[in-house]
């Protein structure tokens, strides 16, 4: 592969001297479940996010599930969310017997479109889950204003947005709860699985803490049904180290994005934009290839040249087989549906080299020349 879509080995090589002694120390300590390593990471994460509380859990999907349980979501409740994202948010809403209600997205940012939210609100609507997709903040001031007006709860899915800010404020701290994933390829990634819930509300944080250990309020006293969903101490150890580097990694991603933008100037590719006041942290660098560009042909050319790339996401969630019962038809959410046919994500990770970005840019320019 001339340029990989991502390469986790490059980052590990730069951190090996920090991580390996810390992991060995943890192994020797015997404190594998919660304990000091998880406490330390939770304290560091809360300070980074400028949030009062942080609760480490097993993965980002569980973070969403537990956050919804902390809000006491009930079967039959409706939750407004975006159809253009990874599956988790809609999945956990449905797992709890509630109903995901999909609202269309902004064409230029791929985020939930606040202008379309109010039309989807019914007496059963309980919550909104915006997702800061690809690391670009959703329009939180507008979403929070709608939530206040209709007394709705807000959980932000920040799985792709660790370190992204809007008007200087971290994603995850606008709503009542923010949820994060430490899947290895995320901007802050573990060497396995991990997740986190942040909140300024002490009661919601405490409830999340109980739910991650089976709904236990005191040792062997169970107040409600919960989960076994702790952040592993080994991952917390690694994450505390990585937390010290994440800002410089996000800066590197932003520099690569600026470089791509330069290289693609004057081409028909539509490059990502940034909302006023937003610090986009480019979890993905996602182009739109509007008609008459032929995405399949361009993708084949990139493959031929050994350029890693991916389609995030090829199918809007409202059209997934699992949600057929919800009754959405093709055409119901036209922006999301069109975007699934236009998007193409390029290699972007901190350790990507400038010459690799140039290779990708050149291959794209060549592919577009051949496709018109
Ligand atoms: C990765 C991701 C999740 C799920 O996180 P896991 O840790 O894999 O469970 C949820 N939402 C979004 C938007 C994601 O990108």
Structure description:
- This protein has 372 residues and is α/β, with parallel strands linked by helices.
- Helix content is 38%, strand content 14%.
- It contains eleven helices and 14 strands.
- The strands form four sheets. It has a seven-stranded mixed sheet, sandwiched between helices.
- A hairpin with a 2-residue loop joins strand 6 and strand 7.
- The two termini are 26 Å apart.
- The mean pLDDT is 97.
- Bound molecules: pyridoxal-5'-phosphate.
- The site of pyridoxal-5'-phosphate (PLP) has 14 residues, from helix 3.
The gist of it:
With 372 residues, this protein is α/β, with parallel strands linked by helices. It has helices at residues 8-29, 36-49, 60-70, 88-95, 140-150, 202-211, 233-243, 246-263, 295-304, 334-342, 354-371; strands at 53-57, 78-81, 99-102, 125-129, 153-157, 165-166, 169-170, 177-181, 195-199, 216-218, 221-222, 278-279, 285-288, 343-346. The relative contact order is 0.16.
**C-alpha Rg, in Å?**
21 Å
SSE string, helix = H, strand = E? HHEHEHEEHEEEEEHEEHHEEHHEH
Number of helices: 11
From the spread of the alpha carbons, the general shape counts as globular
Strand composition percent: 5-15%
| Structural class designation | alpha/beta
Major beta-sheet overview: 7 strands, mixed
Q: Kindly state the mean pLDDT as a whole number?
A: 97
Regions with pLDDT < 50 over 5+ consecutive residues?
none
Spatial strand sequence of the major β-sheet: 1-9-8-5-4-2-3
Helix content: 25-40%
Number of strands: 14
Query: Which small-molecule ligands are present, each listed once?
Result: pyridoxal-5'-phosphate
Compute the separation of the termini in Å: 26 Å
């Amino acid at each position: 592969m001339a340029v990989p879509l991502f390469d986790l080995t490059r980052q590990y090589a730069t951190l090996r001297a920090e991580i390996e002694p810390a992991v060995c120390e943890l192994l020797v300590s015997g404190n594998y479940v919660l304990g000091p390593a998880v406490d330390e990471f939770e304290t560091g994460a809360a300070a980074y996010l400028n949030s009062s509380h942080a609760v480490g859990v097993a993965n980002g999907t569980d973070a969403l599930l537990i956050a919804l349980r902390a809000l006491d979501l009930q079967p039959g409740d409706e939750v407004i969310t975006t159809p253009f994202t990874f599956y988790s948010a809609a999945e956990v809403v449905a797992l709890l017997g509630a109903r995901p209600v999909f609202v269309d997205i902004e064409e230029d940012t791929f985020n939930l479109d606040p202008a379309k939210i109010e039309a989807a609100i019914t007496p059963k609507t309980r919550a909104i889950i915006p997702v800061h997709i690809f690391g670009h903040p959703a329009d939180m001031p507008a979403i929070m204003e709608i939530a206040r007006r209709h007394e709705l709860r807000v959980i932000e899915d920040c799985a792709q947005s660790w370190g992204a800010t809007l008007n200087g404020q971290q994603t995850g701290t606008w709503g009542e709860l923010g949820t994060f994933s430490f899947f290895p390829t995320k901007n802050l990634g573990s060497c396995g699985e991990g997740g986190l819930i942040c909140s300024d509300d002490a009661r919601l944080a405490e409830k999340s803490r109980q739910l991650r250990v089976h709904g236990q309020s005191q040792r062997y006293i169970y107040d409600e049904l919960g989960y076994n969903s702790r952040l592993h101490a080994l991952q917390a150890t690694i994450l505390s180290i990585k937390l010290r580097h994440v800002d410089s990694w996000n800066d590197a991603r932003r520099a690569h994005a600026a470089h791509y933008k330069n290289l693609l100037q004057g081409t028909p590719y539509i490059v990502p934009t940034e909302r006023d006041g937003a610090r986009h942290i480019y979890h993905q660098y996602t182009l739109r290839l509007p008609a008459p560009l032929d995405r399949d042909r361009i993708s084949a050319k990139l493959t031929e040249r050994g350029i890693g790339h991916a389609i995030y996401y090829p199918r809007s969630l409202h059209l997934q087989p699992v949600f057929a019962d919800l009754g959405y038809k093709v055409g119901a959410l036209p922006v999301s549906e069109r975007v699934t046919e236009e998007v193409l994500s390029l290699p972007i990770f901190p350790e990507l080299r400038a010459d690799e970005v140039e290779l990708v840019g050149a291959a794209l320019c060549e592919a577009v020349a051949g496709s018109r």
